[in-house]
């Protein structure tokens, strides 16, 4: 078994009694993301139950550790649930985080009561753009930056979408006086990219028999109709729901509809 590391996380205590007997709600972000990206939604979910947003291995404020793999990230998240959530949780993962929580469900099913997979399928993706993003970040000369806006201007040559640049640059921390650095382990993520884009069922995995929601963006192509057979083979109790007008970042595109769909499933 891969040794786990203690993950950084943001806890939002419940603001209401919630559903009796309901476990905490744990959220796993996508590639280049962090718990911070889920701040407003985590606070909204906390109106009904305690919510914990994790920084996955190689991301946010969590330690840099290797390998950066789904087996390792799932082990880390399982240890977090055991330590901080009383041993079992309802779990949501978006994109890369969705593959993490699927791996956890297939290897430590006792840690998950209900599973939500947001806009990702258990399959290999051909998406060289994700590696291009990492290379573009590493190509920035942090030593010459005087302000964040300079990094945005330089990155625009490779990443024309302003929203994507803002998301990627959420990993840039520091100042000219104290020095700039990447919060995420960008080089480690680049080296791990084939595994992150890939998928192989965990060794010895058995289908997860818990209730599962596969929530997708209506404008996203990450989960296609032909993927359902493979999903149901691993998650036989999966149900599928699409959010109209949402892309791959469905929780950012349609936050209210996303929250309502998650809460309805958990209820």
Question: Could you please describe the fold and organization of this structure?
Answer:
The chain is of the alpha/beta class. The protein folds into 2 domains: 9-125 and 204-266, Rossmann fold; 128-192. Helices cover 36% and strands 17% of the residues. It is built from 10 helices and 9 strands. It has helices at 39-45, 70-84, 96-107, 128-139, 148-155, 162-169, 186-197, 228-234, 250-253, 255-266; strands at residues 9-12, 25-28, 51-54, 89-94, 112-118, 172-175, 179-182, 211-217, 238-243. The strands form 2 sheets. A 7-stranded mixed β-sheet has the order 1-3-2-4-5-8-9, with helices on both faces. Strand 8 (211-217), helix 8 (228-234) and strand 9 (238-243) form a beta-alpha-beta unit. Helix 4 (128-139) runs antiparallel to helix 7 (186-197). The longest helix is centred in the first third of the chain and has 15 residues, at 70-84. It is globular, with a radius of gyration of 18 Å. The two termini are 34 Å apart. The model has no long low-confidence stretch (mean pLDDT 95).
Strand order of the largest sheet: 1-3-2-4-5-8-9
Average pLDDT score: 95
User: What is the count of DSSP helices, taking H or I runs of 4+ residues?
Assistant: 10
Return the CATH architecture of the largest domain: 3-Layer(aba) Sandwich
Number of strands: 9
Q: What does the overall shape look like?
A: globular
Q: Main β-sheet, in a few words?
A: 7 strands, mixed
| N-end to C-end Cα span | 34 Å
Given helix and strand content, the structural type is alpha/beta
CATH level-1 class of the largest domain? Alpha Beta
Poorly predicted parts: none
The CATH topology annotation of the largest domain reads as: Rossmann fold
Helix % is: 25-40%
User: How big is the Rg?
Assistant: 18 Å
Strand percent estimate: 15-25%
Q: Look at the structure and name the CATH superfamily of the largest domain.
A: Alpha/Beta hydrolase fold, catalytic domain
What sequence of helices (H) and strands (E) makes up the elements? Answer: EEHEHEHEHHHEEHEHEHH
| Whole-number total of structural domains | 2
